[in-house]
Amino acid sequence: MSVVAFERKQDSGEWSEKELNTLVAALGAAMAPGTGREWETGMTEKGDVQFYLLGPQPEQACELCVSRIDGRYILEDGSGRLLFEHRNLELVALHAKAAVPSTSWLMVRAITLWCAVRSSIHEKVESLLVEGEELFVQFVPQLAAFA
Fold this sequence. Notes:
Elements: H1 17-26, E1 38-43, E2 49-54, E3 62-69, E4 72-77, E5 82-86, H2 89-99, H3 105-146
Antiparallel strand pairs: 1-2, 2-3, 3-4, 4-5
Helix pairs in contact: 1-2
């Protein structure tokens, strides 16, 4: 069997205004001012365009990536796992919107802080109870001697 490699038709190398508007509109809630998220565009090593949803600074880790390859739009998460692909960008944008965590970054930090404070208080109370029990065990025999 012979394999014939066909030359790929190159895209223009840039996102159209309509494509960018579609992606930004779908991810608008995810990029609200309080979230710290931003978007950026780039290219693959083969010249295919990519759209990145970046997390808050200072890391600005990639949370989602949409690539356009041969007229198909490919949605991947920040780890490079394929989430969805289709020729219809509106459909891909809906999947991108659903893939973004809805809990804000600030809310996650607040929940983490609350859990840390609660755990710390729980440990302090537990250590006081243990120390109180040890003191009680030491003094009960002496109190029994006076009875």
